């Protein structure tokens, strides 16, 4: 199947079956749809990048959750950035750059609602799906509003080289604490320390990594920004200081199957920990401030980020599956133009 760009055709990927465990190609279908002429008051956007995010795995399931499931036989949902290529709408003009949620498809057609004009002169278009978008605000909220670290404290961030974790650790460093990352593999850990400026990074795929975490947190852990769960959370939990704070952002280790139960949940009691789960879309009040700060830091290159870019819509499924195997190195995007 090829998703090459042809005039008057829109390639889309639909969800056609719900996975029981790991997602596979059988759950998706590549579909070719005609691009209908615009009606009055409509806008056509050529999507340049599609964001692939772990939350999409939850939407593929119809189990009880904070959000309704992705319907079957429809375009798979997802954030996009792109450019207005055709318009009959008075406020939208060809060339406008746009942040929207058109999902896994090459073009979006809209009446102008649920889209936002974005400025790519100082911040690259793709960054609006990463550090200056939902993942960045997630990091900002969990770090500033839940962990609220004090100077001299120690914060541990899991999936530290990823879209959310990379921002969370850098924000921690900007406000003073010691930041320790946990990531899969030596290359990711080197990047986390050398480029992102964390104080240390523990490779959880290495032998004896529990001891490495112990050595990297000599004064214990005051704040935990948790993206993974399972054994990774167990290891940090065992290092938590009394009255420590855990921002429970995600537990990706369990998204494709039964999550591993915590080995020592009683530590939450004995260490009097505050554990707070959160969903970033429920905290719209912080988005303007968070996006302003994140945008400025990206523009002046004080906040670093990395992208894994899959080429073309027909590479989206493999790239998505790869998120749950750590194949991405930084924010996972699909380049559509
Ligand atoms: N609460 C919210 O509102 C909210 C919003 C956005 C994201 N999130 C959550 O934040 C977390 C990170 O999301 P992201 O977008 O930044 O993704 P990401 O970190 O860019 O990519 C996912 C990473 O998770 C790690 N991973 C995947 N499977 C794993 C496993 N079985 N065990 C250990 N690590 C595994 C891999 O990194 P390694 O190679 O380092 O293992 C992988 O690269 C996810 O849990 C996501 O659901 C929550």
Q: Which secondary-structure class do the elements indicate?
A: alpha/beta
Helix content class: 10-25%
Number of extended strands? 16
SSE string, helices as H and strands as E: EEEHEEEEEHEHEHEHEHEHEHEHE
Biggest sheet: strands, sense, closure? 7 strands, mixed
3D structure, described in words:
This protein is globular. The strands form three sheets. Strands 3, 5, 6, 7, 8, 15 and 16 form a seven-stranded mixed sheet that branches. A six-stranded parallel sheet has the order 11-10-9-12-13-14, sandwiched between helices. By secondary structure, the chain is α/β, with parallel strands linked by helices. It contains nine helices and 16 strands. It is 24% helix and 26% strand. The two termini are 17 Å apart. NADP nicotinamide-adenine-dinucleotide phosphate (NAP) binds at residues 53-55, 135, 138, 159, 161-165, 183-184, 188, 227-228, 232, 249-250, 252-253, 278-280, 323-324, 326, 328, 331.
Task: Give a short overview.
This protein is an alpha/beta fold and 337 residues long.
Layout: helices, strands, pairs:
Elements: E1 9-15, E2 28-34, E3 43-51, H1 55-59, E4 74-75, E5 80-87, E6 97-100, E7 107-110, E8 116-117, H2 134-147, E9 154-158, H3 163-174, E10 178-183, H4 186-194, E11 200-203, H5 209-216, E12 221-226, H6 230-237, E13 240-248, H7 267-270, E14 274-277, H8 287-299, E15 307-311, H9 316-323, E16 331-335
Parallel strand pairs: 9-10, 9-12, 10-11, 12-13, 13-14, 15-16
Antiparallel strand pairs: 1-2, 1-4, 3-5, 3-7, 3-16, 5-6, 6-8
Helix pairs in contact: 2-3, 2-8
Bound molecules: NADP nicotinamide-adenine-dinucleotide phosphate (NAP).
The site of NADP nicotinamide-adenine-dinucleotide phosphate has 29 residues, from α2 and α3.
């Amino acid at each position: 199947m090829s998703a090459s760009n042809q005039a008057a055709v829109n390639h889309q990927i639909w969800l056609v079956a719900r996975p029981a465990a790991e997602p596979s190609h059988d759950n998706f279908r590549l579909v070719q749809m005609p691009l209908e002429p615009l009606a009055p008051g409509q806008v056509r956007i050529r999507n340049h990048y599609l964001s692939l995010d772990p939350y999409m795995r939850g939407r593929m399931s119809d189990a009880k959750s904070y959000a309704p499931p992705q319907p079957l036989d429809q375009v798979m949902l997802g954030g996009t950035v792109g450019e207005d290529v055709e318009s009959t709408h008075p406020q939208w003009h060809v060339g406008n750059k746009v942040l929207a949620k058109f999902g896994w498809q090459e073009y979006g057609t809209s009446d102008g609602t649920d889209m936002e004009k974005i400025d790519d002169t100082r911040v690259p278009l793709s960054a609006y799906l990463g550090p200056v978008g939902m993942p960045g605000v997630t990091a900002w909220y969990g770090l500033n509003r839940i962990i609220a670290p004090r100077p001299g404290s120690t914060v541990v961030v899991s999936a530290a080289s990823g879209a959310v974790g990379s921002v969370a650790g850098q924000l921690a460093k900007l406000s003073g604490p010691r930041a320790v990352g946990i990531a899969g593999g030596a290359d990711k850990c080197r990047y986390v320390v050398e480029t992102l400026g964390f104080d240390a990074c523990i490779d959880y795929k290495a032998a004896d990594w529990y001891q490495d975490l112990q050595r990297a947190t000599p004064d214990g852990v005051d704040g935990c920004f948790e993206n993974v769960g399972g054994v990774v959370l167990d290891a940090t939990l065992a290092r938590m200081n009394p009255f420590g704070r855990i921002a429970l952002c995600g537990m990706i280790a369990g998204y494709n199957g039964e999550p591993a139960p915590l080995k020592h949940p009683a530590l939450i009691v004995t260490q009097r920990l505050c554990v707070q789960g959160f969903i970033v879309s429920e905290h719209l009040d912080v988005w303007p401030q968070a996006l302003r700060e994140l945008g400025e830091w990206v523009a002046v290159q004080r906040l670093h980020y990395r992208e894994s870019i899959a080429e073309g819509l027909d590479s989206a499924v493999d790239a998505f599956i790869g998120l749950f195997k750590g194949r991405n190195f930084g924010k996972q995007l699909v380049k559509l133009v």
